[in-house]
Amino acid sequence: MTGKDMIKITINLVVIYVIGGLIMAFVYAKTSPIMFIKAKEEKEAALKLMMPEADKIASLGAWEPHEKHAEYYAARKCGELKTVSVKDEKTGKMKEEKECVDPQDIGYIVEGFGKGYSSYIHILASVDKDFVVKKISILGHGETPGLGDEIQKDYFLEQFEGKTVDTLVVIKGETPDKIQAITGATISSRAVTEDGVRNGVKLLKEKLSKEVQG
């Protein structure tokens, strides 16, 4: 193979890499807004499921468990839902929206992350105005199949209803008032319970107790 052949092959490879990079950039530019919108819609749906009796879920602030962006929310019941006409900024056409009149907080939702055995576990937890847990949901994780992934099962999640900061503690074996660890997955159990949910509830109490009392 001559030097010219080597140069030719090198140039061809560079051209292929450049074209491939441009194609990937183009695809990303086209799909990333769609992915963002889809992720936002999925999160809004997940928040609504955490407290379906609420008319409105309003963001109150953000925090960074394990240096990951997470938010906390107020779940609100409207004194009245009015239908109002507003102009769509994109189309310029009029559309109907619901306006929440005299909203009252009925509870709170916190997003958090717990450091599990092989992943950071993405969690949502809802509480009432006394910061008693109503429900939790696992939004995402990469825990071990057949062991750590049991954190998604109802038998584990249903234990959280009625728990407080003091009772969000993992116990190996049966327990009447705390959280029973998943067999063979104590680290994952603690990541959800103590690192994720308990720290999230602590945050809510810290940020909102004075407002609730007032």
Topology:
Elements: H1 3-50, E1 56-63, E2 70-77, E3 80-87, E4 94-101, E5 104-115, E6 120-128, E7 133-140, H2 154-157, E8 170-171, E9 179-180, H3 186-213
Parallel strand pairs: 8-9
Antiparallel strand pairs: 1-2, 2-5, 3-4, 5-6, 6-7
Q: Are there runs of 5+ residues with pLDDT below 50, and where?
A: none
**N-C termini distance:** 83 Å
Please give the count of helices. Answer: 3
The shape is flat
Task: Count all strands and give the number.
Answer: 9
Q: Compute the number of structural domains.
A: 2
Which class do the helix and strand fractions yield? alpha+beta
- Biggest β-sheet description: 5 strands, antiparallel
Strand content: 25-35%
Helix content: 25-40%
Order of helices and strands: HEEEEEEEHEEH
- Radius of gyration, whole Å: 24 Å
Query: Kindly state the mean pLDDT as a whole number?
Result: 86
Provide a brief overview of the structure.
This protein is α+β, with helices and mostly antiparallel strands. It has helices spanning 3-50, 154-157, 186-213, and strands at 56-63, 70-77, 80-87, 94-101, 104-115, 120-128, 133-140, 170-171, 179-180.
Account of the protein in words:
By secondary structure, this protein is an alpha+beta fold. The chain has 2 domains: 1-50; 53-213, no CATH class. The chain is built from 3 helices and 9 strands; from the N terminus they run H-E-E-E-E-E-E-E-H-E-E-H. The chain has helices at 3-50, 154-157, 186-213, and strands spanning 56-63, 70-77, 80-87, 94-101, 104-115, 120-128, 133-140, 170-171, 179-180. The chain has a 5-stranded antiparallel β-sheet with strand order 1-2-5-6-7. A two-stranded antiparallel ribbon has the order 3-4. A hairpin with a 4-residue loop joins strand 6 and strand 7 (133-140). The chain is flat and about 80 Å long. The N and C termini lie far apart (83 Å).
